[in-house]
Amino acid sequence: MYHAFNSLLRSILWLLSRSQRIRMAWSVGFARLTSFTIFLAALSLNSLSVQAIGCPSPLVHSMDGNSKELSENKQISTESLAKNPELTAACGGSTVYTPGTPGTMGVPSTDNNGAFSITWGASTGLEHPGYYELEQSKNSGAYTHVSSPARTTTSHSISGLGDGSYKFRIKACNLDLSTATEKCSSFRVSSSTNVRNKPSAPAKPSNIDSTSSSYTVSWSKPSGTVTYYDIQEKVGSGSWTTVSSGQSGTTLPRSGKSNNTTYYYKVRACNQYSWSCSAYSSQNTVRVEHKPSAPAKPSDINSTSTSITVNWSKPSGTVNFYQVQERVAAGTWSTVASNNTTTSLTRTGKVDGTNYEYRVRACNSYSWSCSGYSSANSAKVRLKPSAPAAPSRPSTSTGSAAITWTKPAGLVTYYDLQKRNNNGSWSTAK
């Protein structure tokens, strides 16, 4: 009934272009006069009366609220009807026929965004003010109203559908105003449309710096319904390959990865089917750098110079640089070389009489891929004093004598004294 009344209003708009004083006919069964009058009043007409004559009982209603006798308007109403043959037919002037069933409906078999176009073949015998009635059913449920497309159209765009299996049906309807009824065709039913709205693309998986050949790629669930993920991998500058399809969680363990190799991963989220997957995420970066073994202890050093050279051996594993730390007189360790590419390090400006220690660690390509530190060595700096002047000695002796000498320049902690008899060999005297 609602659609018949809509069509009647469309007829009124058509007549508005012809006259400012209009009389329309409809059956009593259609007469929601108050709403109808308010609708027409919004059009700012100065003089408007609405009446039903011969369809089947007379009724008059004026915009000013004053009822008028049918006899006052009968002749004018007849003239108005004569100017609108379609309404004359609807009031019994000719027969209103049932239109033909609309032609084959066209819908997609699948859809991943809940929006598409529905089409159908035009109905035969669909006349003004007829219309189509489009309905939908979700998951084999009851059909519900979608739209009442105009009789001149054969398509309808629908949107906002949630996940589910949909069917659509459409019928064509002519209005019989003389009997307050619709004469509608049978429904034409569409094939099914499987709607699965694709989720948003996931954010980039977390970057990874791994010192092991095994690691786990992880990412966050995006918005939307997600039932599984597809993950692709690229090695260095190679091609993308799918390494997991149908992954249900947001992590993927990977093993057997090569040392000193960079890997990349990207992920897409899917809603049950491959045709309802998001775009792939941006790629992450995974760097695999195995730690070398820790170096052996650097060689101990006894130096008579203020410059010393610390030496050590290359350990097993890939080594691109070394980091060296120094400690003075059992103090605090400090880094004295952070990117040393050889197995030795020269240190200058060392202080006489001071003990130093050194330890080394080996690194692959990055500071996070370094070994542990080696054991510490010992480096002693003891500068040689100058040679003493010749000792003083007595010219004669009765078996014992006092030998004296002067302290030379430099730090002296002890002396070695040698003697010889009659130009013989030297031997330690004390």
Largest sheet: 7 strands, mixed
Characterize the overall form. Answer: rod-shaped
Helical content class: 10-25%
Low-confidence stretches: 1-7, 10-83
Residue-averaged pLDDT: 83
Number of alpha- plus pi-helical segments = 4
Total beta strands: 28
Structural class: mainly beta
Nutshell version of this structure?
The protein is mainly beta and 430 residues long. The protein has 4 helices and 28 strands. Helix content is 11%, strand content 33%.
Please, could you describe this protein's structure?
Strand 8 and strand 9 form a beta hairpin. With 430 residues, this protein is mainly β. The strands form 8 sheets. Strands 3, 5, 6, 8, 9, 10 and 11 form a 7-stranded mixed sheet that branches. Strands 12, 14, 15, 17, 18 and 19 form a 6-stranded mixed sheet that branches. Mean pLDDT is 83; it is low at 1-7 and 10-83. It contains 4 helices and 28 strands.
Write the layout of secondary structure elements.
Elements: H1 2-16, H2 33-41, E1 49-52, E2 59-62, H3 70-82, H4 85-93, E3 110-111, E4 116-119, E5 131-138, E6 144-147, E7 155-158, E8 164-176, E9 181-184, E10 188-189, E11 193-195, E12 208-210, E13 215-218, E14 228-235, E15 241-247, E16 251-254, E17 261-271, E18 273-277, E19 286-288, E20 301-303, E21 308-311, E22 321-328, E23 334-340, E24 344-347, E25 354-363, E26 379-381, E27 418-419, E28 427-428
Parallel strand pairs: 3-11, 12-19, 20-26
Antiparallel strand pairs: 1-2, 4-7, 5-6, 5-8, 8-9, 8-10, 8-11, 13-16, 14-15, 14-17, 17-18, 17-19, 21-24, 22-23, 22-25, 25-26, 27-28
